[in-house]
DNA sequence: TAGTGGTCTAGACCACATA
DNA sequence: ATGTGGTCTAGACCACTAC
């Protein structure tokens, strides 16, 4: 028996995975921006010197991961948070009666937006060094006139240079859509840690609830392409008239 | 398999979707049980008179939905909650430090298990009539000696005929694995509504927390094949040392 | 060595959107 | 009419598992 394997590389990577990585690279580099069409399967097959079927399988996986969006007869598009169908993809709070029909919070009040030095936990979450400059945003989201969500958001200062409270206030769609068009940052994945906590005075004041009453704490880290953390968000949700909906397959 | 519906019927169903429905039927009927191998792709292609590629695409989708599990060189298997890799798939509570390594709660105490009449909300959740007989189970799950979860579970009486507190207490693995082997019920999907609530005296007593303190309320409806609701579960989680983890792609 | 799922190809045809 | 993605096929070959 020959102990040596036929190929020296123990890492076997299918062709379509390599193609997938190449497409991902073009997405990450900004060659194709959110909302735009990417080249047709036939063009990509020619560019990469593989069959259309191989390109198809690569795109299939990227579409399953919500990075691309296929539209029959029209082409394949880079997914975007501005898309009507997938707006507020990461917002799981829905009214107890009926489900939110892809529309977001009616009112969004920016309480503050300032530059601060990253604390230890913020730095860790964003893969920065302690003391690095970050943007801190506080806002309140309301549904039907009643405040329901208080959010504290931390963003690395460099990629979001120029972001102001005014700019956030004049934004109509989702904040993540603004990030795409203004800062070329696309959020593709998010992890949330959820807890029940007692409302502090600040919470109570801004959300019009009783001090010590139960609030849902939602701590999110959002990632761009390549699993780079780009946002830390600590949310406090009222869950007396709404609930956090999680569907599992 | 090619239906001759070439009329004005707006219902166009690809071949592989029809194959998928047929495979689903066999799963539902119990022809192939959880943990068993299903026939090879070549066999299924012969049975259904289609190409292997078409069978493959049908199986691909079922595998993506966690109904089947492909294992290269061995075959395709019916997914099961007894599987080491996917045990406690629907349990999202993890310790704050480090993540649960596929092991579940160390201790599971059955507080009660009795037959009751379905209240309005239980009947609605389980698609039963108000007053129908249901089994009600209450239990406490502990991690590392400390109680962390109180659960009230309602099951339709008919499919779970013969289930007792003793049988539940002697069960080692996940409850859903017991359901598969003893009652031929496989849970494939679950919806959870999550809220923050204040602990009642009962909660406080069983979970060793303060009355009025924050608890995570997790209301789950679990479904078998074909989206039939088969379980209603109201859980109350302590989230001082653990958190509910939700990862979104 | 045989059988399984996994990859890759090439080509035909269908459904959908647009011009 | 053209171009896009979607379906279906047939066949070759690769990688993994078991015997």
TrEMBL record, chains A, B:
<protein>
    <submittedName>
        <fullName>Transcriptional regulator, GntR family</fullName>
    </submittedName>
</protein>
<dbReference type="InterPro" id="IPR036388">
    <property type="entry name" value="WH-like_DNA-bd_sf"/>
</dbReference>
<keyword id="KW-0804">Transcription</keyword>
<feature type="domain" description="HTH gntR-type">
    <location>
        <begin position="13"/>
        <end position="81"/>
    </location>
</feature>
<dbReference type="InterPro" id="IPR011663">
    <property type="entry name" value="UTRA"/>
</dbReference>
<dbReference type="InterPro" id="IPR036390">
    <property type="entry name" value="WH_DNA-bd_sf"/>
</dbReference>
<dbReference type="Pfam" id="PF00392">
    <property type="entry name" value="GntR"/>
</dbReference>
<dbReference type="GO" id="GO:0045892">
    <property type="term" value="P:negative regulation of DNA-templated transcription"/>
</dbReference>
<keyword id="KW-0238">DNA-binding</keyword>
<keyword id="KW-0805">Transcription regulation</keyword>
<dbReference type="InterPro" id="IPR000524">
    <property type="entry name" value="Tscrpt_reg_HTH_GntR"/>
</dbReference>
<dbReference type="GO" id="GO:0003700">
    <property type="term" value="F:DNA-binding transcription factor activity"/>
</dbReference>
<dbReference type="Pfam" id="PF07702">
    <property type="entry name" value="UTRA"/>
</dbReference>
<dbReference type="InterPro" id="IPR028978">
    <property type="entry name" value="Chorismate_lyase_/UTRA_dom_sf"/>
</dbReference>
<dbReference type="GO" id="GO:0003677">
    <property type="term" value="F:DNA binding"/>
</dbReference>
<dbReference type="InterPro" id="IPR050679">
    <property type="entry name" value="Bact_HTH_transcr_reg"/>
</dbReference>
């Amino acid at each position: 028996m020959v102990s040596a394997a036929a190929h020296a590389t123990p890492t076997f990577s299918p062709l379509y995975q390599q193609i997938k990585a190449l497409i991902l690279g073009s997405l990450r580099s900004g060659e194709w921006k959110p909302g735009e069409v990417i080249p047709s399967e036939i063009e990509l097959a020619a560019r990469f010197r593989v069959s259309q079927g191989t390109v198809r399988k690569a795109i299939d996986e990227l579409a399953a991961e919500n990075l691309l969006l296929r539209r029959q007869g029209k082409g394949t598009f880079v997914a975007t948070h501005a898309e009507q169908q997938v707006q507020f993809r990461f917002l799981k709070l829905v009214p107890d009666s009926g489900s939110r029909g892809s529309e977001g919070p009616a009112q969004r009040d920016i309480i503050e937006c300032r530059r601060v030095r990253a604390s230890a936990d913020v730095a860790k979450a964003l893969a920065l060094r302690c003391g690095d400059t970050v943007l801190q945003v506080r806002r309140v989201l309301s549904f039907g006139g009643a405040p329901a969500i208080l959010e504290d958001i931390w963003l690395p200062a460099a990629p979001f240079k120029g972001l102001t409270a005014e700019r956030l206030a004049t934004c109509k769609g989702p904040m993540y859509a603004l990030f795409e068009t203004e800062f070329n940052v696309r959020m593709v994945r998010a992890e949330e840690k959820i807890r029940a906590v007692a409302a502090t005075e600040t919470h109570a004041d801004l959300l019009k609830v009783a001090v010590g009453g139960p609030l849902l704490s939602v701590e999110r880290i959002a990632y761009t392409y390549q699993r780079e953390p780009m946002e830390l968000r600590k949310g406090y949700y009222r869950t007396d008239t709404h609930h956090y909906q999680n569907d599992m397959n």
